[in-house]
Amino acid sequence: MEEKFLASNVSVILPTFNRARYIRAAISSILEQSCRAREIIVVDDGSTDGTAAVCAEFARQVRYVRQPENRGKTAAINRGLAQASAGYIWIMDDDDIAPSDALERLLRPLNANPGLGFSYGPLQKFTEDERGRRKFDQPQIFPPDTERPFFARLMEDCFITGQPCVLVRRSCFEAITPLSEDVLVSVDYNILLQLARRYDAECVEQVVLWQRQHPGMRGPNANSYGENERVQRWMQSDGRLLRQLLLDLRLPEYLGLRDPSARLTPPQRRQALFQKATIAARKNLWDIAFVALAEALAGDARSPLTPPDVAALQNMLGCRYGIDAIIFDPAKQAALVKAAGRGALARQVRRAVGSRLTYWIGHAFRQGDLRRFSATCGALARISGLGALRVVLAPMEKRTVQLFRATAADGQRERLQAEDGVYAHQEAEALRLALPPQ
Length: 438
What we know:
51% helix; Spore Coat Polysaccharide Biosynthesis Protein SpsA, Chain A; alpha/beta; disordered C terminus; seven-stranded mixed beta sheet; disordered N terminus
């Protein structure tokens, strides 16, 4: 009886644009939930295909609201929130499917803990062939739930993949709305960042969304993009979101403190700045990262690194968004070293920051990618020192020599060194550093 009451207190908002091919399955999956929602509101953002006709099939169970013109997903969500009446909000995507127990699982932690602002869970990607047969990937695995603040970890990486993975108290949405309709890409991330800044969340372990993979267009008409552009668009948009957010945040917020005016000790202030530098670096905002790192060490260059310090610094070079900018640019490597300063603590910082490069070295090595391998070896040597590089290369020394000599034999080494610009100098230096002495 209790579960039925909770389910009746959920408003599902389904923004859509030209997804007549998929929206029927999305609506059906909501109607088939073990805990049924009070209302389902489809906000049609000016579709020009058969979306309206498909929604008409569900006229008795779905409230259909049509925007007069295409304005983007955020505008559609704002319209849906204005129409919603329940105490919980679940925003569903028009091309995805919810497992039948998704809503029930997301409701449980919110019912058990009134202090939570939202709950979230993992997804599982799938494709569908012409006959409607579905092929599922492995379920998403979230990063370990460490003692580091949830908000800081979310700023580093949007590991909650989309609004359908999240159930939010209506009161929490009321605190952040109306949402800025200037955000046309990274819409879900924008909402999650605003919620996580203000409220606590809890993860459910079971899959709560089946995410469809397809080549269709994304975004509103004025700013649409295809599957091949998706990652690049997200990178650019996420960077814009985080640049503004990092300018707005106060240092206590990086430590998960709700009071932005809280007084911090010197070690706490340094930890917050380390975290800021890492977030900026992972979003390719290296100008902010260098300043924050330098400020951290200028404020406290004596206290030993704490485990949270090390955990934050080790993540700095762990994201695909900013990693190429540091691997292939010796000038940025030099700027990072300069920001870390001099002395024993600076060396510890540089070793922690460079530690993730060992992963990228191994990845390039396994792929046989000479350019990336040699560039990453050079980056590790410059950031963490030759000793760190030799430790990494020692287990693969024989194969490393074979790789470089085989490449040199077919002329690729000479071609790399003959290229103009920074790559020529950087590759030649990286080859010298990476090739073990005979």
